[in-house]
Specification:
Layout: H1 5-10, E1 39-40, E2 43-44, H2 48-58, E3 94-95, E4 104-110, E5 121-123, E6 126-130, E7 135-140, E8 146-151, E9 161-163, E10 166-170, E11 175-180, E12 186-191, E13 201-203, E14 206-210, E15 215-220, E16 226-231, E17 241-243, E18 246-250, E19 255-260, E20 265-271, E21 281-283, E22 286-290, E23 295-300, E24 305-311, E25 324-325, E26 330-333, E27 338-342, E28 349-354, E29 364-366, E30 369-373, E31 378-383, E32 389-394, E33 404-406, E34 409-413, E35 418-423
Parallel strand pairs: 3-29
Antiparallel strand pairs: 1-2, 4-35, 5-6, 6-7, 7-8, 9-10, 10-11, 11-12, 13-14, 14-15, 15-16, 17-18, 18-19, 19-20, 21-22, 22-23, 23-24, 25-26, 26-27, 27-28, 29-30, 30-31, 31-32, 33-34, 34-35
Length: 425
């Protein structure tokens, strides 16, 4: 996930054939949100000028949330919908529907010469996804037919989010859009200062997203008006995870930030040892995620402390996959070509499945199975308790975006511009 904006668009397909190398002599040191970073021993090396700029941003006083903010909404019907990048506000990656033992390919939708890196979202029987060419697609979940398209000037790395008949998505030029889900009409837009890789999330009547300008934005979801913004030390590439009135941001500054959503201010932060761009999964009072240094962490967000860390001495390959978290196991893919399940309480490895290439896409837990996608275009269905392979499908291209699972169907999009739908044949 840690690529510069121009590099990611130019090399959408090629970047998957070789792992990105960090800490080389040729790496450029740039301002937050403006390209590649230098890594040394798994720690982020920031120039003094960047630190000064970050400090100035942190000094900004956020505006208080409006008194008229709407009360919390009831949870979405996650059996029928997958309205956010990881399915729900807590970013658990757990589906509430079921899939057949051997999912069949039901339909495909192809964008000629297109490429997808985002994860689809599903709401009210419609699939929504943005492509690298700058088009947001709305597809009928039942048959894969196009319902509408909305064309913009810049491409989309981020996943969309849907609520109350509106779609929210940010592009690589830093513009955040609100579209009407009925016809794709633009309702409003907002300009951040750098690329948006972050999917959106919601709190009361507001929409949240992060940017490579090192800022978490909170906007009025109806009007696009800025409610508050909060800056950290470096880029935000993850989707903000929301639990009650707290938001969790795992940053490229090597810290987990706990943000008070009512005030727009930091309530706590925890040193995580290395940068990361993955979305934390929250379960109870704990959040789970991996880092660029190859460590996987469990953090108690109320006590603001690390509970456990799992590191593999044989490989320190980065985690660019966001985990799926259930009481039975926390599952994540890695650049070490493995899909791993950890005990949520102890961090002990329960099982490890060897893929043929890196797994940057985020897995989804569906009942007693795990569905994951790899960079070589393979889709895996694994037994959650044991990691045993139960189902496999070879698609064309590769997957950086993750599956969305709702209404008895799994939808995923490839870097060759193809959206796949699987379900009961």
């Amino acid at each position: 996930m840690i690529y510069g904006k121009q590099e990611r668009v130019r090399c959408a397909a090629l970047a998957r054939s070789q792992p990105v190398q960090f800490g080389t002599a040729s790496d450029d040191v740039q301002q937050p949100g403006r390209g590649k970073l230098v890594w040394a021993s798994g720690l982020l090396v920031l120039a003094a000028g960047i630190l000064a700029a970050g400090g100035a941003a942190l000094a900004q006083e956020p505006a208080a949330a409006p008194a008229s903010a709407a009360p919390p909404r009831p949870a979405a019907d996650t059996a029928q919908d997958w309205p956010l990048f990881r399915g729900d506000p807590r970013s658990t990656g757990v589906a509430r529907t079921s899939l057949p033992d051997q999912p069949a390919q039901l339909w495909t939708y192809e964008v000629p010469k297109g490429s997808f890196e985002g994860t689809p979202v599903i709401a009210d029987g419609v699939v929504y996804i943005g492509d690298l060419d700058g088009t947001v697609h709305a597809l009928d979940l039942a048959a894969g037919q196009s319902k509408w398209k909305h064309k913009t000037e810049a491409g989309f790395m981020a996943s969309a989010a849907v609520r109350d008949g509106r779609l929210y998505i940010g592009d690589i030029d830093g513009r955040f859009y609100c579209l009407d889900t009925a016809d794709g009409k633009l309702l409003w837009d907002f300009a951040a200062d750098a690329e948006i890789d972050s999917g959106a999330n919601f709190h009361r009547g507001n929409v949240l997203f992060g940017s490579q300008d090192a800022t978490l934005y909170c906007l009025n979801a109806a009007t696009g008006e800025l409610v508050w913004k909060h800056a950290i030390g470096d880029q935000i590439r993850c989707t903000p995870t929301v639990v009650e009135d707290r938001c969790f941001v795992a940053g490229c500054d090597g810290r987990l930030h706990v943000i008070d959503l009512n005030q727009g201010q930091e309530a706590a932060s925890v040193e995580i040892g290395a940068p990361t761009g993955v979305t934390p999964a929250a379960m109870g009072e704990r959040v789970y995620f991996g880092t660029e240094a190859g460590a996987f962490l469990c953090i108690d967000w109320k006590q603001a402390k690390v509970v456990w860390t799992h590191s593999d001495e044989r490989s320190n390959q980065a985690f660019r996959s966001s985990p799926a978290a259930a009481e039975q196991a926390v599952v994540v893919g890695g650049r070490n070509r493995r899909i791993q399940a950890f005990d949520p309480q102890t961090g002990n490895e329960i099982w490890s499945f060897a893929a043929k290439t890196r797994v940057d896409a985020s897995p989804v837990i569906v009942g007693q199975r795990v569905f994951a996608a790899a960079a070589d275009g393979r889709l895996y269905g694994l037994d959650l308790p044991s990691g045993k392979l139960l189902w496999e499908h070879q698609a064309g291209g590769g997957f950086a975006g993750s599956p969305a699972v709702a209404a008895g169907r799994l939808v995923i999009a490839s870097d060759r511009g193809v959206v796949y739908c699987f379900g009961k044949g």
